[in-house]
Each structure stands twice: as C-alpha cells, then as structure tokens.
Design a protein that fits this description.
It contains seven helices and ten strands. It is of the alpha/beta class. The protein has a domain at 1-83 and 162-168 and 187-227: Rossmann fold. A hairpin with a 2-residue loop joins strand 4 and strand 5. The two termini are 30 Å apart. The structure holds adenosine-5'-triphosphate. The site of adenosine-5'-triphosphate has 12 residues, from helix 1. Part of the ABC transporter FtsEX involved in cellular division. Important for assembly or stability of the septal ring. This is Cell division ATP-binding protein FtsE. Keywords: ATP-binding, Cell cycle, Cell division, Nucleotide-binding, Transport. GO terms for molecular function: ATP binding; ATP hydrolysis activity; transmembrane transporter activity.
Length: 227
C-alpha cells in the first residue's frame, strides 16, 4: 500500500540473544508524526535500529518504504538509508569542515555530481531549518540547537520518505528543544512522515500526536492521558 511507510507484523526484536520487544504489529502511514516513548532500556533505540537496518529483522515481517526488512541484505542497506533521514541525539557533524561542506559531503557520498544542483539543495534544506545564513560556519561555532537544525537539514538532503529521530532533543535545553520541535513539526506539515523517540514528556504535551509506547517488551499505542 503506497500510504503505508512502515508495516510490522508479529515482529520480535533481539539484542544478541535477549528478547527486547515482541508481538509488534503496527503501521505508520504517510504524513504521520509519531512519538515513540518508554523508559530507558525499554527498546526504543532497538526499534529504530530495526527500521534503518542496523539490527536485522529475524522474526516476523516488516517493510519500511518499499524495503522488505526480512529480505534486507548488507548491500541493500545504503539504498534503504537513502529513503530515510536519520537524526540522533548527538549531532554528528564533521568538525573539520563548514556546514555547507558537511552537507556537500553527504550529497557526494550519495551520488550527487552537479555542483549547481548540490548548492541549490544545500540552500534549500538550510532554509527549511532556518539556517540559510550559517552555512559558512564550522560546527563548533554553532549552538547545540543550531547544530541539531543542521543535522535535520542533513537528514532532508535526499528527500526522505521517513525521518527517524532518536532523542533529537536529548542534548538540548527545554527552550531549544521546543524550537527544534517546531522545525520538525513544520517539516511534518510539509508532508514528511516522522517517527521520533523521546523521553521528553513536556514536548508530548505541548505538541500532541500519535504516541507509541515501549513497555514490558511490547509496543502499543497510548492515548495522551495515559502517557
Ligand atoms: N548492542 C547491544 N548489545 C546487547 N544488548 C543491547 C545492545 N544495545 C541495547 N541492548 C539492550 O537492549 C535493551 C533495549 O535497549 P535500547 O537501547 O533499545 O533501549 P532504549 O529504550 O532506547 O533506552 P534509552 O532510552 O536508554 O536509549 C536494553 O536491555 C539494553 O541493555
């Protein structure tokens, strides 16, 4: 189904031989903004890793965009990742080059060749996160919130079908978290599907949306009053 971005059926997720999550059945549809919550060690990162092919799916069935996770081979992973934008708690920008060059590096690594097209794309994604004028700076010259905006811009470079954000506000103060969240909300309003793992319940209250919870080795949807 073209409107389903993630579909998991009877999935169990393991870290080595320990079962982390089981009996996962869920769909994430195009255009949704979905939170993934749960206490530390409940399996949020393992869930995310399964979706981006870092943990192989060995039980149940799952698709992400049009990739079958069960059939995913090592060589398919870069192609899956090009359909995804991944944002982590640590911004992971390359410290030895400017923001523009950080983005250029990703474009070149993912097969872009035309300099003008690359420059236009970089300007477009930096514009989307309100960082158009900061491309000449080095990562250490930016605040944490600005670095995270750049990391979000980087995730947008290849027009991903799904953005996976694992604790994107985990290293930010509350006010900066709200600003970064507004950027993610805007990107979602423009049609992108987002799955965001978070500990930050204040954000959930401020920006309510569909919420999945990892608890007791299960993943289930919760309504906000039960969060
Ligand atoms: N590389 C690994 N090898 C073995 N076990 C792991 C590994 N990574 C995570 N685990 C275990 O898997 C379980 C789920 O961890 P996971 O990191 O997915 O939880 P989480 O909800 O993301 O936690 P946090 O909020 O602290 O990041 C934990 O019991 C953890 O100890």
């Amino acid at each position: 189904m073209p409107n389903t971005i993630v579909e998991l059926r009877d999935v169990a997720i393991y870290q080595r031989e320990s079962l982390v999550l089981s009996e996962i059945n869920l769909d994430i549809n195009k255009g949704e903004f979905v939170y993934l919550i749960g206490k530390t060690g409940s399996g949020k990162s393992s869930f995310m890793k399964t979706l981006y092919g870092d943990l192989p799916l060995t039980q149940g069935s799952g698709t992400v965009t049009d990739f079958d996770l069960r059939a995913l081979k090592e060589k398919d992973i870069p192609f899956l990742r090009r359909k995804l934008g991944i944002v982590f708690q640590d911004f992971n920008l390359l410290p030895d080059r400017t923001i523009n060059d950080n983005l250029l590096f990703v474009l070149k690594a993912t097969g872009w060749k035309d300099k003008e097209e690359m420059d236009a794309k970089i300007e477009e994604v930096l514009g989307r996160v309100g960082m158009k004028t900061k491309g000449f700076k080095f990562p250490h010259q930016l605040s944490g919130g600005e670095q995270q905006r750049v990391a979000i811009a980087r995730a947008l470079l290849n027009d991903p079908e799904l953005i996976l954000a694992d604790e994107p506000t985990g290293n930010l103060d509350p006010q900066t978290s709200v600003e970064v969240m507004k950027v993610l909300q805007e990107i979602n309003r423009n049609g992108r599907t987002i799955l965001m793992a978070t500990h930050d319940y204040a954000l959930l209250l401020k920006f309510p949306s569909k919420t999945l919870k990892c608890d007791g080795s299960k993943v289930f949807e919760v309504v906000q009053k039960n969060v």
